[in-house]
Amino acid sequence: MGLSKSAFVGTNAVFFAMLNLAKGAGYCALGLVSLSSLTASATLAPSLVLGVYLGFRMHDAVADVLFTRLAYVLLGFAGAYLSALGSAGILHWSP
Predict the structure, then answer these.
(1) Would you call 32 exposed, middle or buried from its count of C-beta atoms within 10 A (0-12, 13-18, 19+)?
(2) Are 18 and 80 in contact (CB under 8 A)?
(3) 0.85 cut: is pTM over it?
(4) pLDDT of residue 78
(5) Which of 1, 30, 87, 93 holds its CA 20 to 30 A away from the CA of 76?
(6) Half-sphere exposure of 50 toward its Cβ, with a 13 Å CA cutoff?
């Protein structure tokens, strides 16, 4: 779509934030949120801060062309992985 690196990253951040909020409401409604899951989330919070810091640093360090190529390669791997999982599920499906 010809988005700049910043627009692409920002769009993905907003999309996944909204998706995770929607999932969070569903998890709460199903009773899947517990003290142990909240403790695990709190324990992993410093990793989130470190990841955001490294992301900001890498954003400026990576050239636009390399960023686009990496995005396409990683998207290709994700698509192949999901296709393999779906195929395996279909092949092992029994009515």
Answers:
(1) exposed
(2) no
(3) no
(4) 95
(5) 93
(6) 5
